[in-house]
Design brief:
Radius of gyration: 30 Å
Bound molecules: S-adenosyl-L-homocysteine
CATH class of the largest domain: Alpha Beta
Largest sheet: 5 strands, parallel
Number of helices: 15
Strand content: 15-25%
Number of strands: 17
CATH architecture of the largest domain: 2-Layer Sandwich
Helix content: 25-40%
Number of domains: 4
Length: 475
């Protein structure tokens, strides 16, 4: 036999630890110690279906172990008020201890003598295995290890994975295990089965929150066309990528094509799947822009070609985002379309500048209006009586070109020229800038804001400087 070392380069770089997934159902395991860490390990082992014996010393803190009794789904947990002995290791699948150092060492030695894999909490040298951070979409289970080098980093990796893995994937994986045998009987051809699982996987990512039902099985079985395309309309928020929703991040991570507006910050696009094609359909101000009808048609064409399209819009897609046209086009073409809301510019601006949009006494109403009508001028049909309401907060989107006219019409309709007002450019982004003054001087002040930046105007008592103190009361 040829015992020469392998000449080909290794297929995998060195591994600090090999991840293994331990089948613990109905296996006996031991947890020694009376600590919160021990309790957590007992919970984990029980969740994995093990029969857990807890040896918590002669005087365990009973409250600590409350609620950890047998339940129908998890493995049973038995608590005994005594110390461990060498006999306890007989026939165990695993042993875990959270004990004083000297005792931990003795525990590890006894476990090894009994050939039981052992873990002593926080003592890597005494551990045959480690339990990393876990992302639980059971039957999909992800374990993360940093080999003890950086537990906090491990936790943060876990949060990031949590954020991009829809909880509904668990349901899809469970359905796969229910359907596997049935599929083998119905579809003897291996290649055809593979195509089924490709369609299954595409469907899972397309609608992860849909809990698969039996009719999905037959649909996937009979569906041989190149479907699976969809459109997800996603709110990108006002700019700061941290303000995206978890759903938005997941949609970006599973997209195959992203059609995005000019307003979408590059930082947001960075969160998208690397392989996703990014198409700018910017429609801001001057410069070439893609017509709405072209965007509508492109959404439908891409989805029909089987793409997972994300239509990414600044702020909330349903606020001054011309969403209706795109939704109608998709629905008319039978393209499945879902909507992920976002934080609209007004909310982002209020949070970034630190003021409330409503107040019990001074701002009983919030209204979003646009300063940009169909023809680019001030819309003819704005409700000036509503805008002149001194108890309203009015947020004006796309205000720049028409601000002077807007202010004088509002004043003419009865709004006090001294009403507080503000204009904020690029709210929530590092380059955010704002001006605060009276409504009468706002057009002049707002002109100082950087050219080309998106600007939002807020008019009403909430825009005053110094908050409640300025009014001499607390609203
Ligand atoms: N759907 C978006 C609005 C699109 S209309 C939303 O919900 O926010 C485009 C206008 O939104 C811009 O002209 C500006 O008035 C406002 N806007 C969007 N993002 C902004 C930001 N970061 N700072 C200030 N204004 C913003």
């Amino acid at each position: 036999m040829n015992r020469e070392p392998l000449q080909t380069p290794p297929r995998i770089a060195p591994l600090a630890k090999l991840p293994l997934f331990h089948a613990l159902h109905d296996r006996r395991v031991l947890v020694a110690g009376d600590t919160d860490g021990a309790r957590w390990k007992a919970e984990l082992l029980s969740a994995a279906g093990a029969q857990v014996l807890v040896l918590a010393g002669e005087a365990p803190q009973r409250e600590r172990w409350e609620g950890l009794t047998a339940s129908p789904v998890d493995g049973p947990v038995l608590l005994e008020a005594r110390d461990w002995t060498t006999e306890d290791f007989d026939g165990l699948a695993l042993a875990i201890a959270d004990l004083e150092p000297a005792e931990g060492e003795a525990f590890a030695a006894a476990a090894r003598a009994a050939h039981v894999p052992v873990n002593v909490v926080d003592k890597p040298a005494l551990c045959d295995f480690q339990i990393g951070s876990i992302v639980n979409r059971s039957p999909v289970v992800i374990g993360i290890s940093t080999d003890g080098a950086a537990p906090m980093l491990g936790q943060s990796i876990r949060s990031r994975i949590e954020a991009v893995l829809p909880p509904g994937l668990a349901g899809w994986a469970a359905a796969a295990s229910r359907w596997r045998e049935r599929l083998k009987r119905k579809v003897p051809d291996g290649k055809a089965r593979r195509r089924f699982w490709e369609r299954f996987t595409a469907a899972a990512w397309n609608a992860p929150e849909h809990a698969p039902v039996e009719s999905d099985f037959s649909e996937l079985l009979n569906d041989t066309g190149e479907t699976g395309g969809s459109v997800t309309m996603v709110g990108a928020g006002p700019g700061d990528p941290e303000l995206l929703t978890l759903k938005a991040v997941r949609a970006l991570q599973t997209a195959s094509v992203i059609l995005y507006d000019d307003l979408v910050a590059p930082e947001v696009l960075e969160l998208a799947r690397r392989e996703a094609r990014r198409v700018s359909v910017g429609k801001r101000g001057r410069g070439p822009s893609v017509g709405q009808d072209v965007i509508d048609a492109e959404l439908v064409r891409l989805a029909r070609a089987g793409e997972r399209v994300v239509r990414l819009k600044g702020g909330d897609p349903l606020v001054f985002g011309r969403a209706t046209e795109e939704l109608d086009a998709c629905r008319a073409a039978g393209v499945p379309v879902t909507i992920v809301p976002g934080i609209t510019a007004t909310q982002g601006a209020a949070a970034a500048l630190g003021f409330s949009l409503t107040e019990r006494v001074h701002a009983r109403r919030v209204q979003f209006v646009t300063g940009h009508g169909m023809s680019g001028t001030l819309p003819e049909d704005l409700d000036w009586r509503a805008i002149a309401d001194p108890h309203a907060t009015t947020a004006v989107y796309m205000p720049r070109a028409t601000l002077a006219e807007f202010a004088s019409r509002a004043i003419a309709a009865g709004l006090d020229p001294l009403t507080p007002a503000l204009a904020v450019a690029s709210a929530t982004l590092p380059q955010q800038a704002d001006v605060r003054c009276s409504l009468a001087s706002l057009p002049q002040m707002a002109a100082k804001l950087p050219e080309g930046a998106p600007v939002l105007v807020v008019i009403g008592q909430v825009a005053r400087e110094n908050g409640a103190a300025a009014l001499g009361d607390v609203a």
